């Protein structure tokens, strides 16, 4: 099955919600990594640059961290099922491990923000 075939598999992913499908890697490796993992995450991070309230920033960091966790699970799972060049699956898994390190750093920032509140 190609990556594009995994984008929508009726019966398997038809009854799942968006975030459940995303965490399961049902959108395929390319779409999960590039669209949800990179493009959407960059847009969210750019939007966070204009937040000035510590309270709003704290809530946003929690929401973004939860989103990142869902995306990272989806990338890992999509990479595990990927049928194309193995190098892409391996690179995606390496990026996922680095992404989990970023999640840990975000949690550290959140804890520091709480100390200022």
Notable traits:
117 residues; membrane; transmembrane helix; mainly alpha; disordered N terminus; transmembrane
Please bin the fraction of helical residues.
over 70%
Spatial shape:
elongated
Number of helices: 4
- Biggest sheet details: none
How many domains? The number is 1
Regions with pLDDT < 50 over 5+ consecutive residues? Answer: 1-11
First and last CA, distance: 50 Å
Q: How many E-type strands?
A: 0
Secondary-structure-derived class: mainly alpha
Order of helices and strands: HHHH
Radius of gyration: 16 Å
User: What portion of the residues fall into strands of 2 or more residues?
Assistant: under 5%
Would you write up a description of this structure?
Helix 1 (about 20-25) packs across helix 3 and helix 3 (about 55-80) packs antiparallel against helix 4. The chain starts with 17 loop residues before the first helix and ends with a helix. The protein has helices at about 20-25, 30-50, 55-80, 85-115. The protein has about 120 residues and is an all-alpha fold. It is elongated. The chain has one domain (about 5-115). The model is unreliable at about 1-10 (pLDDT under 50).
Give the SSE layout.
Elements (H helix, E strand, L loop, with lengths): L17 H7 L4 H20 L5 H28 L4 H31 L1
Q: In brief, what are we looking at here?
A:
By secondary structure, the protein is mostly helical. It contains four helices and no strands.
């Amino acid at each position: 099955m190609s990556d594009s075939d995994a984008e929508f598999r009726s019966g398997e992913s038809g009854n799942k919600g968006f975030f459940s499908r995303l965490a399961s890697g049902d959108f395929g490796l390319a779409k999960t990594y590039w669209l949800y993992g990179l493009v959407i995450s960059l847009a969210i991070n750019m939007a966070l640059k204009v937040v000035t309230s510590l309270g709003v920033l704290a809530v946003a960091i929690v929401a973004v961290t939860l989103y990142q966790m869902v995306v990272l699970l989806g990338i890992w799972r999509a990479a595990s099922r990927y049928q194309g060049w193995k190098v892409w699956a391996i690179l995606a898994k390496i990026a996922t491990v680095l992404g989990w390190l970023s999640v840990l750093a975000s949690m550290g920032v959140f804890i520091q923000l709480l100390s200022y509140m």
